[in-house]
């Protein structure tokens, strides 16, 4: 899935805070956005979908961090919980798309995301055929609803920015491999 889908998911994960701890909702949403981006930094360092994607291990942080945030809510505990939850969800959700190959629609790979405890790659589900596919943009749009309606300030601004990036990326996606050597 493309980055705007993951960042919008981070905001969705923070949305329940509006009901239970509204004073930490914005910081939680911003941490969720950061956690949605973080795993894909392995595009630049190490091996993409392996070095910073942990479909299992992030949960070892995310679940205790969520418990800690519930028991002792503060900006720091909520931010760490949302960051790690969002990174964990990102790493699992990539399994439901295609692999990291440049042209998933033409030359599909069988490597979606690396499952470290088993030392092997998960095979892509392709429920979303490739990152930047029209259905990926639909997902971004749906997941952006809480960020647009229930949040203000920088969360709403970043949600709008994510939507713009998503629309542009979807529009040019199939031409990207012609210009970028990835
Ligand atoms: Zn990813």
Order of helices and strands: HHHHHEEHHHH
Distance between the termini: 16 Å
Total domains: 1
**Rg value:** 16 Å
Fraction of residues in H or I helices: 55-70%
Mean residue pLDDT:
96
Structural class: mainly alpha
How would you summarize what this structure contains?
The protein has helices spanning 3-14, 17-20, 25-37, 57-71, 75-93, 134-143, 145-149, 153-172, 176-179; strands spanning 113-115, 120-122. It is mainly alpha-helical. It has one domain.
Search tags:
single chain; mainly alpha; globular; binds zinc ion; LexA-binding, inner membrane-associated hydrolase; transmembrane; transmembrane helix; membrane
Structure description:
The chain crosses the membrane at residues 55-71, 148-172. This is LexA-binding, inner membrane-associated hydrolase. It comes from Halogranum gelatinilyticum. Keywords: Membrane, Transmembrane, Transmembrane helix. With 182 residues, the protein is mainly alpha-helical. The two termini are 16 Å apart. It has one domain (3-174). β1 (113-115) and β2 (120-122) form a beta hairpin. The protein has 9 helices and 2 strands; from the N terminus they run αααααββαααα. The chain is globular. α1 (3-14) runs parallel beside α6. It has a two-stranded antiparallel sheet. The chain is 56% helix and 3% strand. The site of zinc ion (ZN) has 5 residues, from loops.
């Amino acid at each position: 899935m493309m980055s705007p889908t993951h960042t919008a998911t981070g905001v969705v994960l923070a949305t329940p805070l509006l009901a239970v701890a509204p004073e930490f909702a914005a910081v939680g949403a911003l941490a969720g956005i950061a956690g949605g981006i973080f795993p894909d930094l392995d595009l630049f360092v190490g091996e993409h979908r392996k070095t910073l994607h942990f479909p299992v291990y992030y949960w070892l942080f995310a679940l205790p961090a969520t418990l800690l945030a519930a028991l002792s809510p503060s900006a720091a505990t909520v931010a760490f919980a949302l960051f790690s939850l969002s990174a964990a969800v990102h790493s699992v959700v990539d399994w439901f798309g295609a692999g990291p190959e440049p042209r998933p629609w033409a030359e599909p790979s069988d490597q979606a995301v690396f499952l470290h405890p088993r030392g092997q790659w998960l095979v892509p589900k392709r429920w979303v055929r490739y990152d930047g596919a029209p259905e990926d943009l639909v997902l971004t749009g749906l997941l952006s609803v809480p960020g647009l309606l229930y949040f203000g300030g920088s969360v709403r601004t970043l949600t709008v920015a994510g939507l713009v990036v998503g629309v542009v990326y979807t529009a040019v996606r199939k031409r990207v491999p012609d210009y970028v050597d990835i």
